[in-house]
C-alpha cells in the first residue's frame, strides 16, 4: 500500500509524473471529471485549515468522487479519547483514501500502519506537509519552467515551518539548487536539517539575517508566517513576529521574473500592496494546490487497486529500531499507545520515525 507521509516517499520520477499529470488536468479538466467516480475521500482534520481542506474537497469533487470526514476533531469520537489508529480503522470501512491533518507530529505515519487504504499527510505539527510541497513544485514548474538551477530564499519562520522543511527535502534532489535561509536567530532552521543539508552534495545553502542583502540574486522568494501557535513562550513570539515584512520597497532590487510564494495564511509578512505585483504568485499557488491534489488522489487510488489490504496491523514499511523513547512532547508517541520506532541515519544518529527528534 502506497501512502504520502513525507515528500521523500515519492521518487523524483514519481514526483515529476504527478506534477506532469496535474498539468494535464489543467489543460483538459473535462477528461478527468469522472476519473474517481464511485470513490470516497475522508478528510480527517484535527487542526484548523482553510486552503488544504477545501483544496482536497474540491479536488475529489472535480474528479467525480465524494467526500466525507470532519473539520473539527471535537465533533468526532476523538473528543472521547479515540486513538488515531482506531479512527482510521473505522474510517476505512467508509472511504477509499484518507487525507489527515493532525497537530501531533507523526500521526499520519501511525495512520498508515493501520488504515489499509492510502493515507495522505495534510500536515502533522511542525514536521511535514508533503502536499504543499507538491503544490510548490507545480507552481515553480509553471512559473519558472524547471526545478533545477534555481536560487531560492526561504524567509521567516524556518524553525517551525513544515512547508519549508518539506520543500527543502524535495529540492535537495535537484542539480544546481541554492537555498538561502533568511530568518532571525530564534527561528533558524533546525540543526538536524542543517546537518542533513551539509551532507547532501547537490544542495548548496547559506544563512543570512535580512532579505535585502540577497534579494537581487533570488529566482524564488518563499515567505512564511511566524506561527504563534508553535511558540511555547508568547513573549518570544511578540519579539520576532514583525521581523520580516515584504513590501514593494524591498522588491525594487528583485529580478523582474522572480516569484514570491507563500503557503498562506499570511498575517502581516507580505503587505497588501504587493498583491498586484506580477511576481506575487501566492494566489496562483493556491489554485495549483487543487490540481496537484487531484493528480495525487488519482495516482494513489490507481496504485491502491494494485495492492491487497492489510491482513494484520500495524504494518511497518521498513526496518526500525525499537526500545527507545522519543523526547519530543509534540510527537504522537508521547500521547498515544503506539510502537516507538527509530531510524539510524548515515551519521549514526537515531531519530524518531514519527517526528525526527534525536534520541537521547
Proportion of β residues? 5-15%
Written as H for each helix and E for each strand, in order along the chain, the element string is HEHEHEHEHEHEHEEHEHEE
- The secondary-structure class comes to alpha/beta
How many helices? The count is 9
* Straight-line distance between termini: 32 Å
Beta-strand segment tally = 11
Low-pLDDT runs? none
CATH superfamily of the largest domain: Aspartate/ornithine carbamoyltransferase
As laid out across the biggest beta sheet, the strand order is 7-6-5-8-9
The main pleated sheet reads as: 5 strands, parallel
Please state the overall shape, judged from the principal axes of the Cα atoms: globular
Which fold name corresponds to the CATH topology of the largest domain?
Answer: Rossmann fold
Helical percent range? 25-40%
**CATH hierarchy: architecture of the largest domain:** 3-Layer(aba) Sandwich
What does this structure look like?
With 360 residues, the protein is an alpha/beta fold. It has 3 domains: 7-129 and 287-304, Aspartate/ornithine carbamoyltransferase (Rossmann fold, 3-Layer(aba) Sandwich); 132-283, Aspartate/ornithine carbamoyltransferase (Rossmann fold); 320-360, Roll (SH3 type barrels). Helices cover 30% and strands 15% of the residues. The chain contains 9 helices and 11 strands. Strands 7-6-5-8-9 form a 5-stranded parallel beta sheet, covered by helices on one side. It has a 4-stranded parallel beta sheet with strand order 2-1-3-4, with helices on both faces. β5 (151-155), α6 (162-171) and β6 (177-182) form a beta-alpha-beta unit. α1 (12-27) packs across α9 and α3 crosses α4. The longest helix has 23 residues, at 282-304. It is globular.
